[in-house]
Design brief:
- The strands form four sheets. A five-stranded mixed β-sheet has the order 3-2-1-4-9. A three-stranded antiparallel β-sheet has the order 5-11-12.
- The chain has a domain of about 325 residues: Spore Coat Polysaccharide Biosynthesis Protein SpsA, Chain A, CATH 3.90.550.
- By secondary structure, the chain is an alpha/beta fold.
- The protein is globular and about 100 Å long.
- It is built from 17 helices and twelve strands.
- Helix 10 crosses helix 13.
- It binds 2-acetamido-2-deoxy-beta-D-glucopyranose and magnesium ion (MG).
- The site of 2-acetamido-2-deoxy-beta-D-glucopyranose (NAG) has 8 residues, from helix 3.
- Magnesium ion binds next to loops.
Amino acid sequence: MAAGSARIVRYILFAFFFIAVLYFISHSSPQGLPLTPDNFGVGKGSSSSGLGKTEGAPSGEKESTGFGSTGIESSSSAGTSKEDIPGSKQSTKGKGSSSYGDIKDSTAHGDLAEAPMALTPADAGWDNLLGTAPGPRMNATFVSLARNSDVWDIARSIRQVEDRFNRRYNYDWVFLNDKPFDAQFKRVTTSLVSGKTFYGEIPHEHWSFPDFIDQDKAKKVREDMAQRKIIYGDSVSYRHMCRFESGFFFQQPLMLNYEWYWRVEPSIELFCDIHYDPFRFMAENKKKYSFVLSLYEYVETIPTLWDSVKKFMKNHPEHIVEGNSMGFLSDDGGDTYNHCHFWSNFEVGNLNWLRSKAYTDFFEALDKDGGFFYERWGDAPVHSIAAGLMLKKEEIHFFNDIAYYHVPFTHCPTGEKTRIDLGCHCNPKDNFDWKGYSCTARYFELNGLEKPEGYENQQD
Ligand SMILES: *[C@@H]1O[C@H](CO)[C@@H](O)[C@H](O)[C@H]1NC(C)=O
Ligand SMILES: [Mg+2]
């Protein structure tokens, strides 16, 4: 008797277990369960089907209710294998274009309106951080200037950008270097980026002294700055970098394929989840340039920059826009520069603006004056002054909800509710926004924005 009922109990338990296993298998999403080699990354880099693209499988998009379904597969359906792209130096548009197949349609304003973005916790879809994000994709890429020796520092940056944002969007990533990228750099970065990766070598004329520069004069400046211990004051390559970021990154063949860029440097950190697509936010809200940190430039590096800017304003009044942000840059209506600038190691911006006649004329005028070499002009004040004078002030956006660190400054959103909603891991005490050396309060005042609750407690 006892033995018989024990057997029945065993049968029943076994049946339950069996049903539970069946249920588990049939209800798991593609990124959840199937224990196939693909999901473990086995065969990554050796077969074009095992590149971790399973996230994009349309069957995993059940949770996208409430959003238009257009464009969901746009980043995954192309099926372009990643390993055939690295090393291709010229435009890969031919290969990449199929993945943009429906961008033209889906970025048309009608469709955007049909698939609204969840911008606050009150909006539908806000909490959905799993799987591929619904909605259209912009014509956009990440861009990183890096050396082969930066591989582990850029890897850290990529990992954070992917975890906090891009794993759900799979945007492309362009890497630029004045030397050829080596195989390890390509392997590591391609393994981390969920979108397609492209590697470009910067042409010599974009990373060298233009012929109108007097080498002796430039050398004396570097020696003098070295003595005065001005940061990077004696560096030639830092100057090439600043000039490249000021005038040439957006002209590289690989960058011509895109309208929007997001600049990512080695060793940055992102502290909060990004619940919506910043590229799409920029496009829908007619923004052209954005920032998360602003501060005063080190005067010794730009003593005559504003003189060049004033000369440009006089020669090109047609490029100076009404309703601009002169009030951010100058306290006396443009007579002198207050040294405020947006910190350009983070930027989400519009490439077509940088490629416009206005910006091109601006860069060329500054370049001819020689300050990239006779002083040490940074790309941050150059971009900022351009945005400040040649964009309407509403076209410059402050991304409060993108929490960011680049040595030595942190932007950590003000207000505990925001930080909790966004799952932030930054220390609010580190937030630079309202400190004396930040220009962000000035930006808020100029644009009539209300400062977030609690900012007064973060002023020192
Ligand atoms: C993306 O933008 C670039 C630059 O404006 C343009 O040449 C290209 O045709 C665009 N691609 C798509 C698919 O719209
Ligand atoms: Mg840096």
